[in-house]
Amino acid sequence: MGEPAALVERRDHIVLITLNRPEVRNAVNADLTRAVGEALDEADADASVRAVVLTGAGDKAFCAGADLKEVARGEFSTEGIKPHWGFAGCVTHPIAKPVIAAVNGFALGGGTEIALWADLVVAAETAAFGLPEVKRGIIAGAGGAFRLAAQLPAKAAMEILLTGEPVSAADALRLGLINRVVPPDQVVPAALALAETICANAPLSVQASKRIARGISDGSIPSERAGWERTAAEGAAIMRSADAKEGPRAFAEKRAPVWEGR
Predict the structure, then answer these.
(1) pTM confidence score
(2) Chain segment 130-159, per-residue pLDDT in tens
(3) Of the residues 113, 125, 159, 246, which is catalytic?
(4) Which distant-in-sequence residues (6+ apart) come within 8 Å of 19 by Cβ?
(5) Would residue 113 show up in a list of annotated catalytic residues for this protein?
(6) Options 3, 38, 133, 253, the catalytic residue
(7) pLDDT tens profile 63-109
(8) Is 165 annotated as catalytic?
């Protein structure tokens, strides 16, 4: 048995979840999805947990998004994954406990979508964000397209979404995508300190405040339903295209894609 795909630690009232696939820049596969989804379910059900911090192993990446090599090989299975978890076990999983993403390196594609899902983000000075799916012939299907547009000024969101180019931590802070930028070795300590500040407050008040602010009702966010429906419809059409097959294949083969527009 190898290392678990995600590590879960308890720090007093805080649960620290670490995406633990550093050899592939913490890219998301089924094992990681199950590990994170289960950890979030347990944290949400435990009354003694008041906050969650989510980070990535290693010093290179928070999360590189989906494991496209597994996708290209047809190995990305959804077996055993609960419907309410979503990508990486979290993007359709709005728990009542506050979640802080401690972004310790680049967070591209699904990595940025995890950051968009989180309530707060502390990032390393070396971190980068972006949705490069258009460079791979696919779309930001884990909430990125509509959440980015909801959380950033419209023109800034459209540039990030349509160019697929990365955004530095400094620019992400300026745009309001993240809360704080710190030296790389201070990312997790700073996120834990922010979590401790939250944990000092009345937990039921904090959780109610999050539910109100995020529009959470019965474990879902009804206002996002239309965004998910549009994402599913567009994503289904895109995934039937030749370009959607070419993008991951070109990535796996380390070459430029040849788009056909069909």
Answers:
(1) 0.94
(2) 999 999 899 999 999 999 999 999 999 999
(3) 113
(4) 5, 6, 26, 28, 32, 36, 54, 55, 56, 57, 62, 63, 88
(5) yes
(6) 133
(7) 998 887 776 676 666 677 888 999 999 999 999 999 999 999 999 99
(8) no
